[in-house]
């Protein structure tokens, strides 16, 4: 490393760069692309990239852009004032020199600071190029950026340095920011310096980084690496690098059947075992949109026909997890522990990426997506996208263009169910509310912990049932939920109170339950879903079923067993009531105290209602526990980069206490999102509305005669109500009012080579059936024989029949 620079030396060098021939050249007008020969394809790409990262089509004097540009200028000014190049650092608070370089936690932090130093320079370069920042065209800022680049190249990011800490910092974080700066300040950087910066990128991100679609070079990471290679080609004038980047995208496009990527059912997996639509999936979607736009119309345009898979995934994979502007935490992995970016702030970049991606899609897709985005953005009353402080100017401009487009009619939230067996997730939408379910099995991890993030997400895969209202409770998981909630009492989960260490089970989603039966069936409107649960680092076992219906989710649990020497609980709900927490709570018509703390055992409870949220019905009555409490935590508790400031939120928790070391414990309840107190009481009083046909360790099933519905999860073969199965399966039968019925069947275990199902109901004929049905016999009863279901990946097989 070079000797440390004093601040005086740094300032003197920055001011004298141009005069001393240090490489600073005359820059084009701030905010405009640099002049270049018309036949220079690299200059054209630099112009395109500058527009993509600086934005277009907005007025710097109009809000929210005026304030955002001023904030950008203020941030850049802080970095300018505090920059002090020294041995091993560019800023005093961002020391990157590693006295013992390896891959331990300390090295991870130090490599992150190196990448962050480039990101700060990128902020400064954008403030220089953007209008309205107060630093537009400021030569001192320009020279500081150039000096910072040179210092980082000399000190740490060069072709002679061995990387330490986090690979991501060296291969994605740092080079993306470095290359952005090189594009924005291209005419001010001497060719010799650009060559050295490109050599550094080549050193850390060689062509071999995308030679095989494995390890850290898949999904979102692969797209990020391709962005680096493409911009390296743009900055260094290398057609081969750009072509490599384009071609290396192709493995991302095809649907996969294992590992990372997009699946036919709409699942998206990263890190082999983690559902990641809302985090890594967002990065991939945004990265593809940028690269498609960068290369469009050039000699390197992305023309692989399989790119249509990504276009199709907008509505098949991303849209199901977007609700009124937020992206559901059930597919955000360890990102839920990042306090500065909640589910709404993670959702808004996806909306902007959909708008950008639409430019490369068909006219019909583009128009439909813009209408979808307008609906999501307009309905986000809790956190309006144009007020999102973490959303970049370009994303803001795209969303504002959609919101201002009077030709667009916002698309409302859909009505129906989506089941994602390839990532053990489900979403359910009904008028006024939406829900999401997260589970775990031998392919999908309990939770992900890594880089000091999400060390207490232990039970998020134990049947956590999230739900939101359309005009209420949109901030349920946004308002400091994760650092303040009791991690042993997550809504919908069954968990042992056995104390777990932070990060229990291992980093990066390596801990998987040894279970196969996880999944269910859906007719796209309703669903029966089940999870054979084995607890993380515990002896807990349980059978859990959810029946997603028109205005309710019926929740059953059975076979609950544990020998941990600890209590086992099933959390009916755990509602974040915010800082004040004064929502009235009523049980069987009796209003309970609003004081904190308050707790009670509610024996023989028929129903309960939480004002502003919804209702809960307990068929036949149940003994449940309730607690009002004020909980305090810190984001640092669940993320080593989080704030140490304490935050407090009030909660109302309702749960079944199965006791210490239970054997064959059960539970049953209905969740009624958004229901009034009167409707909740009426449902409880209507004892015949729901019939629980079975709730045992062998089968769980329900019937709702008014809906013509019978649904059973067969953990083992047997007979439940009118249904008989000779092997494990999930079944849902719906009789329609037109003399027809639909039978939905799946093998959640993905291993049946034969299955026989009998429905004891008079059937005149079979109207249609899938190829998996090798024999269908109508008559006094319907008998279906299925062939090999192992290749259906747990997907629903639908048979339509005409009733006698």
Automatic annotation (TrEMBL):
Residues forming the Polysaccharide lyase 8 N-terminal alpha-helical domain are 49-374
Name all Polysaccharide lyase family 8 central domain ranges: 417-676
Question: Where would you find the membrane-spanning parts of this chain?
Answer: none
Per UniProt, residues of the Polysaccharide lyase family 8 C-terminal domain are: 691-756
List the keywords (alphabetical): Lyase, Signal
Q: Where is the signal peptide?
A: 1-35
Q: Which domain of life is it from?
A: Bacteria
Recall the GO molecular function terms of this protein's record.
lyase activity
- Read off the InterPro entries from this record: Chondroitin_lyas, Gal_mutarotase_sf_dom, GH-type_carb-bd, Lyase_8, Lyase_8-like_C, Lyase_8_alpha_N, Lyase_8_C, Lyase_8_central_dom
Q: Which CDD domains match?
A: GAG_Lyase (cd01083)
Family, similarity comment: Belongs to the polysaccharide lyase 8 family.
Q: Which PANTHER family match?
A: HYALURONATE LYASE
This one is known as Polysaccharide lyase 8 family protein
- The organism is Streptomyces anulatus
